[in-house]
Design goal:
Length: 76
């Protein structure tokens, strides 16, 4: 399984190849959704039996992806 970022890995046989916390089936998008809903990193870590640092790793990964995007508005 390739690690694609600190604490994040992808495996085509796990969660349909979606990014997950290394060694788990906890998807990055699940963590981000919980944070967006207002859950704390501590609550998420406890609920999914991962560490707070795993939660932070998911945020760092998402930040890296968004930071690499170029948005070019189309006017019409």
């Amino acid at each position: 399984m390739p690690e694609i970022a600190d604490r994040i890995e992808v495996d085509a046989k796990r969660c349909h190849g979606k990014p997950v916390i290394k060694g788990t089936r906890v998807m990055v998008r699940t963590i981000l959704g919980a944070l967006a809903a207002g859950d704390s990193a501590e609550r998420i870590a406890q609920a999914y039996d991962i560490s707070v640092e795993d939660v932070r790793g998911a945020v760092r990964f998402a930040n890296q992806l968004v930071g690499d995007w170029d948005y070019l508005p189309v006017r019409g």
